[in-house]
Design a protein that fits this description.
Length: 338
């Protein structure tokens, strides 16, 4: 067996992109040994299940857009299948260590917390048919064990990061308020093009003329005091949207964003033309701080995550981790629980 050290950094990076043939192998064969704790396939089934469900979710989209299986898509020289296996191994080791530390330091799950894990197990099982659940290879006991381990590990993790002292004011000063200034709008939209499979096809001249007549009528109604609900009733083919964005977002067209920069709260725009259609915009809030505060919270969380990474790497010094690489590599992720 090969000795491999798994760091929290690897887990965090791998989780950003995430999303058996066992006829000759024993489910009780050790996959990884952490100190004297031997983890077998049962300890991996839940995480394998999550990854295989992720693949099922994305596979058709990858085949349709890229013409390849999701597992075969490469990120930084590794296939999604390889990344999935690395993520599974890292996560299983992480939570085994966190739950072990929790027990060493006297953490336990309360009756309410145990009841919650039982409820979550039952919800997962009830989401599958009897045959589907049987094919996963899991049992209620296996799921209860892993859910309790996750809950205990999370309890330890939260206890540690909540005790970290960070300079929140200093972190706040690093976040540019103007960069995260959020515009909250609503609009009436008349399309001038058909969008299909990423291709934009402008309407014919007669259709464009009809679309312009409609947005002109929208403008007239708004100027006469009609609200958007009334406009939708009177102008056939009009649509209503709410749009919230910061200027660096790609969720709104540049012309839309440029128009919003000049609108006061409560003000309506003139007709705004983009490659997709015509808009009349109503500004609800041109200086919402929600995204700014979220960015600060994320920066603080990232700082605490960095501190926890240091803490976790120090914990690893007390653990000997041996991965049975030959056996683990023989496990064909993709057909174990599905």
């Amino acid at each position: 067996m090969n000795n491999k050290r798994i760091t929290l950094t690897a887990l965090l990076l791998l989780m950003l992109i995430m999303p058996l043939s066992l006829s000759a192998c024993s489910k009780k064969k050790t996959i990884v040994e952490i100190n004297k704790s031997k983890l077998v396939l049962d300890d991996f089934l839940y995480d394998i299940y999550l990854m295989e469900q992720e693949r099922e979710h994305w596979n058709n989209k990858y085949k349709e857009s890229l013409g390849i299986d999701y597992w075969d898509y490469e990120y930084k020289g590794l296939t999604m299948k390889q990344l999935a296996k690395d993520t599974i191994m890292t996560r299983v080791i992480l939570y085994d260590i966190l739950s072990s530390q929790a027990k060493k330091e006297g953490f336990t799950l309360s009756d309410d917390e145990l009841a919650t894990t039982d409820e979550n197990v039952d919800k997962l099982i009830s989401s599958m048919s009897e045959d589907e659940f049987k094919r996963t290879g899991m049992s209620k006991d296996i799921l209860t064990k892993v859910y309790n381990k996750l809950a205990l590990g999370d309890k330890y993790y939260l206890s540690v990061i909540n005790n970290f002292e960070v300079d929140e004011e200093a972190i706040r000063s690093t976040v540019n308020h103007d960069e995260y200034r959020e515009y909250i709008t609503e609009c009436i939209y008349i399309p001038t093009a058909e969008v299909r499979d990423g291709k934009i096809t402008p309407y014919s001249d007669s259709e464009l003329e009809e679309a312009y007549d409609k947005i002109t009528e929208v403008k007239r109604l708004v100027q006469n005091g009609a609200d958007f609900d009334e406009v939708l009733k009177q102008v056939e083919g009009s649509s209503y949207y709410k749009r919230s964005f910061i200027l660096t977002d790609k969720t709104a067209e540049d012309e839309y964003k440029e128009a919003c920069k000049n609108l006061d709260n409560g003000e309506y725009s003139d007709v705004i033309t983009t490659q997709f259609g015509y808009y009349i915009i109503h500004m609800i809030d041109n200086n919402s701080t929600t995204r700014y505060e979220n960015a600060i919270e994320e920066a603080i969380a990232n700082e605490k995550t960095s501190l926890f990474e240091i803490h976790y790497n120090k914990l690893l010094e007390n653990y000997e981790i041996n991965i049975n690489s030959e056996y683990w590599e023989s496990i064909d992720i993709g057909s174990i629980t599905s």
